[in-house]
Write a structure and sequence with these properties.
The protein has 136 residues and is of the alpha+beta class. It has helices at 2-11, 26-35, 48-54, 94-97, 121-128; strands at residues 22-23, 58-66, 83-90, 106-112, 115-118. It has one domain (18-128). The N and C termini lie far apart (42 Å). Residues 3-18 have low confidence and may be disordered.
């Protein structure tokens, strides 16, 4: 009986996400950064990759997971076909520190029907220039 509970405890973290977490290769990572638009009105950057490099931030890697079946959905707001991205960034510049945005080092995005939505304060700053939590 104890072995059964130990096995469940060890396997439970793997059941947390709908599909396995996928790490991206460098080419896919650069393509992802170029596909996320930046809508900041004062910015001269057209995509996330350009803006991060312009502020001296070094994107290091990205992880994604998605929902393939309705039975895998975790929250009432999730939709089959959603893809969640976590983009890890290393802070490297004084220019960025002067923006005074509490930056966690992880940009979290949701891709739904071809459109990207920021999920945390860092992603909201990167996408819109506003250091606020995204609307729910």
């Amino acid at each position: 009986m104890i072995k059964f509970f130990c096995a469940i405890t060890l396997l439970m973290p793997m059941a947390t996400f709908a599909t396995p977490l996928k790490s991206m290769d460098q080419r896919g990572f650069e393509k992802l950064l170029a596909s996320i638009p930046v809508s900041d009105s004062v910015s001269r950057y057209s995509n996330l990759g350009e803006k991060l490099r312009g502020f001296g931030l070094k994107p290091t890697d990205a992880i994604s997971y998605s929902y393939d079946r309705k039975s895998e959905l975790e929250a009432s707001t999730d939709v089959v076909g959603d893809i969640h991205y976590s983009i890890h960034v290393a802070e490297t510049s004084e220019l960025f520190r002067r923006q005074q945005c509490d930056f966690s080092g992880v940009l979290m995005y949701l891709k739904r029907r071809g459109k990207f939505y920021p999920l945390n304060r860092a992603a909201m700053w990167a996408s819109t220039g506003n250091c606020v939590l995204p609307p729910r």
